[in-house]
Amino acid sequence: MLNGKLALVTGSTSGIGLGIARALGRQGADLVLNGFGDPADIAKLQAELASTLGIKVHYESADLTRPADIDAMMARITAAHGSVDILVNNAGIQHVAPVEHFPVDRWDAVIALNLSSAFHTTRCAIPGMRARNWGRIINIASAHGLVASAEKAAYVAAKHGIVGLTKVVALETAKTGITCNAICPGWVLTALVQKQIDARAQQAGISVEEAKLALLGEKQPSLEFVTPEQLGELAVFLCSPAANQVRGAAWSVDGGWTAQ
Predict the structure, then answer these.
(1) CATH superfamily of 6-186+226-251
(2) CA dist 22 → 46, 139, 168 (Å)
(3) Catalytic, out of 21, 35, 87, 155
(4) pLDDT digits over 126-155, tens only?
């Protein structure tokens, strides 16, 4: 379905981003990965994806908190591989603290990576998409793009901002073959979430399984984690002709979190 398309997925060396990259690659899209990690591990991942999926897989190490690095990355991709057809803005970080104690540098870092980087990649990608009259921009927001949780001021602000940015881009491209949508996952069992579970288990003196259920029980009525594979398949749908008129949506995949 996506043969001949080039997909850039940020934050794609692990977790949600990697799940989405795999799903797009299975449909024939060539991939540009971006994210942090051990160079040897990333090279191994590139080779594995290219071999198993039969596609081209490139890697960009750009620091997405730096607009100049994003500009340079997008220029390199265009020069070497052609314009980006599918842009998935997934990269993100988290910091937890009450507002009055929230470190200013952490606020700036979360906003830069979780929100501003999506603006910069999008503004660079749209001209090429307009020239071809086809493009898919998929922003990975969060349940926290729709509702809030205490002590997550920067993350919630950034993810609400991503939902707003999604709507603006969708309106500005509404008469074109470009669509822009947001996916809003609830709890996904990534390495970062596993760390929270392990810490909760240790602090409460309970098993890891009990800590998982306690975490889910606070927010996610299904008591089941969303998987990167499920999010990847939704991204594939959003790239399909069936989604041509899905524009500016904030699509919840959260086990009922935001239905409460």
Answers:
(1) NAD(P)-binding Rossmann-like Domain (3.40.50.720)
(2) 11, 17, 28
(3) 155
(4) 999 999 999 999 999 999 999 999 999 999
